[in-house]
Amino acid sequence: MVKISLQMKANLQNVTEFKATGEDFRWYLKVKCVSCGEVTDSFVYACLLERSPMQGSRGDANLVIRCKLCSRVNTLDILADSIKAYKAGVSTYQTLVTFECRGLDLSEFSPRTGFACVGEESGTKFQDVDLSENEWCDYDEKAGESVAIDELEFKFVRA
Predict the structure, then answer these.
(1) Cβ–Cβ < 8 Å for 95, 86
(2) Do the strands 125-129 and 115-119 form a parallel or antiparallel pair, or are they unpaired?
(3) Cβ-proximal residues to 78 (8 Å cutoff; 6+ apart), any chain
(4) Cα(105)–Cα(14) distance, rounded to whole angstroms?
(5) What would the mean pLDDT of 20-46 be, rounded to a whole number?
(6) d(CA 103, CA 109)
(7) In whole angstroms, how far apart are CA 58 and each of 1, 2, 30, 51, 55?
(8) How far is CA 86 from the centre of its chain?
(9) Alpha carbon distance, N-terminus to C-terminus of the chain
(10) Distance (Å) of CA 144 to CA 18, 66, 121, 140
(11) pLDDT score, position 14
């Protein structure tokens, strides 16, 4: 059982408290089987609300996936208390979430919808921020200025 954290570095313009919202948030990942090295062709997702039974066990996990090459069953759990907001003004990588992995490694993250942030000056809440283009911009009417998130960089580190 290995704990792997997803870390992010980004440029936040006039927004703070960038975070994934809700237990139904989907973390889109490419996973690699540690037995044979096979990486999934497409992104698979893990969600706190969804649990699947583990074959040959009484337990369950947020993601249970069978390797297409070696047929090994691998699992991933999202550690709910590890989900954190990204703070503006910090130029280093910050952990967004930690996963508990059995038999797999994480190779890529694809940000999509379901993020939220808050206007720095006005406190305006921006819901359902879509990062599928690896950037987002909007206009904060209360503050009278544009807001944006760009220059996204992600990496996985052992926790």
Answers:
(1) no
(2) antiparallel
(3) 27, 46, 47, 48, 62, 97, 99
(4) 35
(5) 97
(6) 18
(7) 17, 20, 26, 12, 8
(8) 12
(9) 11
(10) 20, 50, 10, 6
(11) 97
Cα–Cα distance between 93 and 86 in angstroms, integer? 9
The total number of residues written for the chain in this structure: 159
Q: Is 144 left (phi over 0), alpha (psi -120 to 50) or beta?
A: left
Measure Cα distances from 131 to 19, 82, 95, 141 in Å: 12, 21, 17, 21
The predicted model gives 62-85 an average pLDDT of 96
CB 127 within 8 A of CB 138: no
Tens digits of per-residue pLDDT, 86-101? Answer: 999 888 999 999 999 9
Indicate the residue type of 2.
V
Residue 144 tokens read as: 């009278």
Chain center to CA of 77? 12
Distance of CA 40 to the CA centre of its chain: 17
Amino acid at 123: G
Instruction: Compute the distance between CA of residue 48 and CA of residue 75 in angstroms, rounded to an integer.
Output: 13
In degrees rounded to 5, what are phi and psi of residue 109?
A: -120, 140
Which strands make up the sheet holding 15-20, listed edge to edge?
Answer: 15-20, 115-119, 125-129
